[in-house]
Every structure is written in C-alpha cells, then in structure tokens.
Design a protein that fits this description.
Organism: Siccirubricoccus deserti
Distance between the termini: 69 Å
EC number: 2.7.7.59, 3.1.4.-
Shape: globular
Largest sheet: 8 strands, antiparallel
Keywords: Hydrolase, Magnesium, Multifunctional enzyme, Nucleotidyltransferase, Repeat, Transferase
GO molecular function, one term: [protein-PII] uridylyltransferase activity
Number of strands: 14
Structural class: alpha+beta
Pfam families: GlnD_UR_UTase, HD, NTP_transf_2
Strand content: 5-15%
Strand order of the largest sheet: 7-8-10-9-13-14-12-11
Length: about 950
C-alpha cells in the first residue's frame, strides 16, 4: 500500500518524545499502590476487613484518582489514545485485584464444605480482556470455575458485582465453568469472541490455564471457518445498522465501517487462528501463516488503531459519556483538541475529518489484505488453479476457487499493471467474483497504476468500466483499493474530503460515485416515478460518454479554493484527451462541469416566470443536447447528495426550467412576446369561466396584472376566480385555502386579503408557528388593492403538509397573525429548537443585490443559518425598508437557508440608489443574525416595529 494513503499524513495527535519514558514510568507505578490498598481494605496482617461503607469510600477515591491521572496525561498529550487505553486498563486491573482480595476477606466460608470449594479465576473479557479501556467503557468480567460455582463463589460474585455497581461502573459479567464456556461458545459467537479476548486478572491461575488448554483444543477442532463466517455476518449486520458507507459525514467511530470494531475483527481472526497477541507477530517469513503482513502494513494498522483510539478518548471526555458517534457538534471540538488548525481555505475540522476518512479507508484496505490471508493460511492453499477459456488465458487471468486471479506463476499486477483493469472488466463481463487474494494484490500494487496513465489500452478499459454496467461498484472498488487515486492524480485530492455542513451526507469522492450510480439507475428506468423527465431524456442523448465523464469530474476540484466548477472545467480539458475522449467530447465535458449547477441554481433561486431568466439560460446553453445533458446531470448530482435532498417539489421546479428553456431552443413561443403570453393566459382563463355572467368574468380578468397571468395555469386562475367571487359575496376580510399536491410533495396555501406592508412577513411567521416550511411563494397585488399570495409548504420531513388538524390550525394562525391577535415573535421563539449536534455548524450571513438578473425587479439573495421564523424576520426587514416583494424562492441546504426575493420600491421601480441599498443591507444582516439569548432575535428594531404596526 502507498505510504501516502496508509500513513503518509502526519497525525496531529502525535505526542512528544518524552511520552515514551513517561508511559513506562506511569505503567511501572500502576501496581505499586495496590498492596497498600489491599492491606487497608482487608486489615492485613492482623486486623479485620474494614466496613463496606468505608471500603466504598476508599475505592471511590482510588478510582477517581486513576481516572483523573489518565485523563490529565492524555489531555496534556503525554499519552496517545492507545497508550491511555492500555494504562487505564492496567490501573483498573489493580482495582479489580484489590476488590477481589476484599471480597475474599468479607465472604468467608460458612462450613467445611465451603472451605473445600474449588476456587475461581477472575477473568477480563471483551475490550478489557484485550487490555484496553475507554473512559466510559463497560468492564466485561468472567467468573471462571473448574466445575459449577458453589455457594461461597456465588456469594463472592454477588459481593463483587454490587461493589462495582455502587462504584458507578458499568459491568458485563458471566459466571461459568470451563465446560459451560465451551458449550456457550458453540452456541453464541458473541460469547466465543469474548473468550478469544480472555485475560487472567486475579484468583486461581491454574483454572485459567486449564481453560486456555481446553479452549485452544476446541478452536483447533472447530476450525476457523465457522468463526470467520459468523464474524463476517456480524460485521455486515453492524455496518447496516451504523452506516454501510465508510464515508458518512457523522461516522460511528467504534461500530461504523472502517472503525475500531473492524480492526478488532482482524485481531480476533488472527488470535483465533494463530493464538497471536499482537499484529506485528504476523510479520516475517517465520511468523504464523508465513508472513501475512508486511512491516509497512503492520505500522499502518498501529497508526489506524492509535488514531481511532485517540479520537475515541477525546469523544468520551468531550461528551462526558460513552459517545461513539462523531456528530457535527463534536467534530470541531475533537479536531481542535487534536491540533487540527485551518490551513489555506480548509477549516481545521475539515482537515481532521479528512484524516479520519483516510484512516477509515486504510482500515478497509487492511481488512481486504489481511482477512483473506488469514483464511487461506488457516484453511490451506486454494484449490488447484486452472486456466479458464482461451480469452481469459490470453488476458493473463485464471481461476482460483472459481474466482478470478492473475494467472500464476508468471503473471502478476506488479509486472503487468494492466492486469488490474483487465481483471475488473472480466469480472464485470462474466459476472464473476474477484478472488480475495487478487483484491489483496490490487491494494498492494495500486501504486503501479501510475504507469498506466498514458497507455491506450488502460484508458480504453477505464472508460469501458466507467460507462459500463454497475460502474459505481467498480469505481468504488478502484477507490477503496487506491487504484483510482494513482490512475487519476486529481482524484486523490477529493478522497475523504468533506464539507462541514448538514447538507452533504457523503465525502466528495463517495458522493461522486453515488452520482454515477444514480445515473445508471436513470438509464435502467428505475427512477421513472421520481425523475420522469430525466428518465425520458436519457435515451435521446448523443453524448453518453461525455455525460459519464462529467459526472465523474463535476466535483473534482472541490477543496482547492476558488470556484470548483471553473477549476474542474480546466481539469477536464487536460484529463479527457488523455483518457481517449474526442475534442468534441472534451469540450462537452468541460462545459458540463463548468455549468453543472446552472439548472438547480436557476430553479431554486430565480423567478422562471421572468422572461430574462429563461432567455439568459437559453443563450448560455444554446444546444438542446446540452440542455438534456445538463438536466440529467443535475438530477444525478442532487439525488446523490443524500436521501433527504430530493423531493417532488424540487423535481417539479427542475422540470419547469427544462421545458421553458427547451421551448425557446426549439424555436417555439419566444419569451420576449410577453403581451402575447398574457393575452393567451387571459383567454384560457376566460374559457374556463365561460359559464359565468359576462360582467363577473370581465371583472376578474381585469384584476390581474401581467405578472399574475404568467405565474399560474388556467386551472389555477379558475380556482382563484372562484375564491375571490366567494370572498366578495360574503364580504370576508380574509380567505385562506389549502390544497395538497401529492405529485409535487407540497401543500399550496392561498391567502386573499387586503394588501398592506408586512403582509407577507406576517403570513410567513404564522406558517413558521404552524410548523410549515415554505419552499416557494408568489405574491400578487390585484387592481382592487387586494393581495393574492400563494405559498407552497412542506412539513419537517420534506413531505406535503397534509394532516387535516394541522391545516385547520394553520388557517387559524394566519387569521390571528393578520388580525394582530398572535404575538408572532413570542410564538416563533417557542418553536426555535434544533438538535444540539447541529449547533456547531455555522453559516456566515450574506446579502447579495442583483440588478441585472431581471429587467423589472431588484433581486435580493440572502444566505444564512436556517431557523423557524427566519423568513418572517427577513421579509419584515424588507417591508420595514418600504419595499414590495413580488416573489420569493426559498431553498434550504441542510442548515443553510438560501432565499431569493424579487422586489420593487413604492414607485414600482428597481432599487438602485446606493444609500437605500446600504440601509437595506444593514437591516437584512440584522435579520439574519442568530436570535438573542431571550429568543427575541436581533432583527433591527425599526424594521420590526414597522412590520408590527402594519
């Protein structure tokens, strides 16, 4: 394995040179106080044991001292995480010895039969048995007897356990005879694994030694096979529970894929098969198995083991409990404690998490290296290798155990690196498995991929794997083995790279592979219901290879500073010709990478009813083929971000952008013909209202300005007409209508009321109190002075806000807010709650004014930390500055809110005065600021007062 990926990074958790001497002194001093402690507890040599209450006080003080000593040494960076875990276990051993001695003294035999009762051995199992303990870990104990436990042993066990519980320790325990142990181990792999870790603490050592003899013999009789199969099944289930991807941005340090438990599994397998105590025992020709590890791999295991233990220790101390998931709130704290500081444009926490993900990848690679080697060494050599058909033999491949390997004895990956790609293609084409030993060889020889960069066959094979069946599977294997980073050097810079936000679920490399997986789902028509347009367009594309390459490279330049789209486009220009793409394909890939965010940013941040918006995109895209490619790439990119990002509403917005731009590119109705489009919309509405009296129909048609007619379809215009007619007939000052749009995963809220400044803000506040999240809004003032505002909302889970009782409450809250009977600020403060783990993620507030995006409105884009009521605060600031909001486009990316407003001044003009814009900026930045401690927020008083008066 390459030094760069298996430890080339310098750990920020490195410790001073003096630590070795201090560790030795600390460990040497650990048992020195135990004889005095035992003497004090038991009253030796002549006295009686002290009372239990006094013993508890004494033991508590001792336990507190040893825990504090370990914590002080660790936090002073005198001990690494692994050294601290070992020292804590060693100090706990002394405590257990003292407790055992006290129990012997306090539970004397009651009769001669109990005096002759066989003794027991107190044995450590689990992590404690391996000689390592985390600050808040359980202590796993086995009370081991030769035969079944007698009355005195049972009383002693009970005495010890109650003492440990009263000390506040979490204890896992069992009382078994040697025979019971063997029988339970045969039935339960968890028990068997605990016994693999068994370590003598105190008591009758001969009992423990007899146990070791019997257990060793039993392991030899049963063989490694059943244990290996059980541990693999257990690992698969564990990964499914804690995250099957090793690149989740909130990883589980202990149980997640690539975590401590995976390293422990390797230890268990080696100990079960060869009775080894430490991984370095597997290095060298004379070692068990004949040298299963190289010295470099053994060092990599130790580095990973030490790094993960250091992270775990920090996590426990920061959380004050046995916390194993590295959530967002802990990441910056743990990273800072480990010395990760900002470097360039990369935050310290992102550097820390990248090191963690690289370590996790190393664990995965080490598992693929060592596990098959242990299996092969324990179970014997593979079945006789035989060549397959002539094509396989000519490619330099063969079979071993029915799986693909490089053909022995003269063909191997180090001498012929091209075999690494040939074996992947053969496995895909023939639906065969690659032998674990071949994957092991892939990992060890990945650095030879550098020699393939300019080979035409290698580039052809790579493109075939990228664009062929199950491409994500083979890319993921190339990534985990390290091949991809060597073959495409720019890829190495995004491996393990994360963005410290709650929007992106995966690291950049894993997100990219996920995007290619989604692209293949689209091709297989598996996403017809959720992405119908992309599924329809995929079969019309003429530039399939370019699309796959763009998906591979769209985020290749993240983490470098600057615009990753521009940098990525330049990388594509250099890389694509090397991989064998034509000049035309290279230009297409570069263009797609440069503009891969265009469709999504337009859909979520711009008013697509504004003619200039659609025209600008059409001028940039120019080609229907490019538009199709861009739409498909956008869908794949968004769905690969995480399971909660994609929803029906966003799919609808993307479709509308596509069809409007496609209409222009196809030479249909020209966008500038606004009057024609308005006239057609009015005619369509008139047709829908043909049964109405002419006077009523004409009155409704005269009430809408041009923007209103272009914002809705004829069906919606007809619904609005009926709503207005009913409101006027009943003289209702306020009308609220709700409509669930299941196909779009939103609920449409329509409000008809007298227009006045601050109306939008009050409605937004009421919706926030109701628990509704606004995803889009249209605001229209009619010629009769009434406002017809439409909001599209979702619930907290990203679905339609459709519960009847919640919709009823929402309508009441809107009415109360507009009548002034609802104290919005107080009610919003009550719902301003978020998980503690998300509070560490900060979003710098930003306000951007754009007077070029629209010919008729000033476009305001605000970025800030999302919270309930944010839209109310921001729109109150806008209204407080005397501006009218024409439309709002609301988008959230995790905890980041990106809201865009189209506004005019009181004269119906753009806001271009610099002093006015400066004043507006101040008010909006105040609205974006975090709420004050009292929950009142920090929106400018004047803005709020103006909105409240309105």
């Amino acid at each position: 394995m390459s030094r760069a990926r298996l430890g080339g990074m310098t750990s920020a958790a490195a410790f001073p040179a003096r630590a070795t001497a201090q560790r030795s002194t600390a460990l040497a001093d650990a048992p020195s106080v135990i004889p005095d402690l035992i003497a004090e507890l038991t009253g030796a040599p002549d006295g009686s044991p002290i009372r239990r209450e006094a013993a508890l006080d004494l033991l508590r003080r001792h336990l507190g001292r040893i825990q504090l000593r370990v914590q002080d040494a660790f936090e002073a960076q005198e001990l690494s995480g692994l050294a601290s875990a070992r020292w804590l276990a060693a100090l706990t051993d002394g405590l257990m010895q003292a407790i055992h001695a006290y129990a012997v003294a306090m539970v004397p035999p009651r009769n001669p039969a109990e005096e002759a009762e066989p003794p027991f051995a107190l044995v450590a199992t689990g992590g404690y048995g391996r000689g390592v303990l985390a600050p808040y870990s359980d202590i796993d104990l086995l009370f081991l007897t030769e035969q079944s436990a007698g009355p005195r042993v049972q009383r002693m066990v009970e005495f010890v356990l109650y003492l440990l519980w009263d000390l506040g320790l979490k204890v896992g325990h069992a009382t078994r005879s040697i025979r019971d142990c063997m029988e339970e181990a045969g039935r339960d792999t968890t028990v068997l694994t605990a016994l693999v870790d068994a370590r003598f603490l105190v008591g009758d050592r001969p009992v423990f030694e007899r146990f070791l003899e019997v257990f060793h013999r039993t392991r030899q009789e049963r063989g490694l096979g059943p244990f290996l199969a059980a541990k693999r099944a257990e690992r698969a289930g564990r990964h499914a529970r804690y995250g099957d991807s090793p690149y989740l941005v909130e990883p589980h340090v202990k149980e997640g894929r690539g975590g401590l438990r995976d390293l422990q599994t390797l230890y268990w397998l080696a100990r079960y098969a060869f009775n080894t105590q430490r991984m370095p025992e597997l290095v060298g020709a004379d070692s068990p198995g004949g040298g299963l590890l190289t010295e470099h791999e053994a060092r990599a295991i130790r580095r990973a083991w030490n790094f993960l233990w250091t992270v775990r220790f920090h996590l426990h101390y920061v959380a004050g409990r046995a916390e194993e998931r590295l959530t967002f709130d802990f990441q910056p704290v743990v990273g800072a404690r480990m010395g990760y500081t900002p470097r360039g444009r990369q935050d310290g926490v992102e550097r820390f998490m990248k090191h963690l993900f690289l370590t996790v990848r190393d664990v995965l690679r080490l598992t693929r290296v060592l596990e098959p080697a242990i299996e092969r060494a324990a179970l014997g050599p593979p079945a006789t290798r035989r060549h397959g058909d002539a094509a396989l033999a000519e490619a330099g491949l063969a079979f071993a155990d029915g799986k693909l390997v490089a053909a022995p004895p003269n063909r191997d990956f180090s001498r012929e690196p091209i075999l690494m790609l040939r074996i992947l293609k053969a496995a895909r084409d023939r639906k065969l498995e690659i032998h674990p030993l071949a994957i092991r060889a892939l990992i060890r020889n990945a650095h030879h991929a550098t020699a393939l960069r300019d080979q035409s066959e290698a580039n052809t094979l790579f493109l075939d794997l990228l664009t062929g069946k199950d491409a994500a599977q083979w890319l993921r294997l190339m990534n985990e083995t390290g091949f991809l980073s060597r073959f495409i050097p720019d890829w190495a810079r995004i491996v393990g790279l994360m963005q410290f936000d709650t929007y992106h679920v995966f690291t950049v490399d894993e997100h990219t592979i996920e995007a290619i997986g989604v692209l293949q789902q689209v091709e297989r028509n598996e996403l017809v219901e959720v992405a119908p347009v992309a599924s329809e367009l995929i079969g019309q594309l003429q530039s399939r290879r370019a699309l796959y390459m763009a998906a591979l490279l769209h985020d290749i330049a993240k983490g470098r500073g600057g615009d990753h789209s521009e940098l990525g486009a330049r990388i594509a220009t250099e890389l694509c010709p090397r991989l064998g793409l034509t000049p035309e394909e290279t230009e297409t890939v570069s263009w797609l990478v440069l503009h891969h965010l265009l469709v999504s940013q337009t859909a979520f941040k711009r008013d697509i009813e504004d003619p200039k918006t659609v025209l600008d995109i059409a001028d940039l895209v120019q080609s229907p083929e490019r538009l199709r490619l861009l739409l498909v790439l956008t869908v794949c990119d968004m769905r690969a971000v995480g399971p909660k990002v994609w929803n029906g509403w966003k799919a609808t917005l993307l479709r509308e952008v596509y069809w409007r731009v496609a209409e222009v590119l196809a030479g249909g109705l020209s966008v500038p013909e606004r009057d024609v489009r308005v006239a057609r919309a009015r005619d369509a509405a008139a047709a829908m209202l043909a049964a109405w009296p002419a006077a009523e129909r004409d009155a409704f048609l005269a009430r809408g300005y041009s923007g209103y007619w272009l914002s809705f379809d004829a069906d919606t215009h007809a619904r609005h007409a009926a709503l207005i007619r009913e409101a006027e007939a009943s003289n209702a000052p306020l009308t609220v209508r709700t409509r669930v749009l299941e196909s779009r995963a939103v609920t449409e809220i329509t409000v008809y009321a007298a227009d006045h400044p601050g109306l939008f803000s009050r409605i937004a506040g009421a919706l926030a109190v109701a628990g509704a999240s606004i995803v889009d809004a249209r605001i229209h003032t009619l010629t009769n002075g009434m406002a017809l505002d439409t909001f599209w909302v979702q619930d907290a889970a990203g679905g339609a806000f459709d519960a009847p009782h919640r919709l009823a409450r929402l309508s009441v809250l809107v009415e109360q807010a507009l009548s002034g009977r609802l104290r919005l600020r107080e009610e919003i403060c009550k719902v301003r709650r978020e998980p503690a783990r998300l509070r560490a993620v900060t979003v710098p507030p930003r306000v951007v004014f754009d007077n070029h995006a629209s010919n008729t409105h000033t476009v305001i884009e605000v970025n800030g930390r999302d919270r309930p009521g944010l839209l109310h605060d921001v729109t109150a600031a806008i209204s407080g500055e005397g501006l009218q909001i024409a439309s709002a486009h609301i988008t959230t990316y995790g905890v980041r809110a990106v809201d865009v407003f189209y506004v005019k001044d009181v004269f119906g003009l753009k806001v271009e005065n610099e002093r006015k814009l400066a004043s507006l900026r101040v008010a909006m930045e105040a609205a974006l600021a975090p709420p004050a401690a009292d929950g009142g927020g920090s929106v400018a008083v004047a803005a709020r007062a103006a909105a409240d008066r309105a």
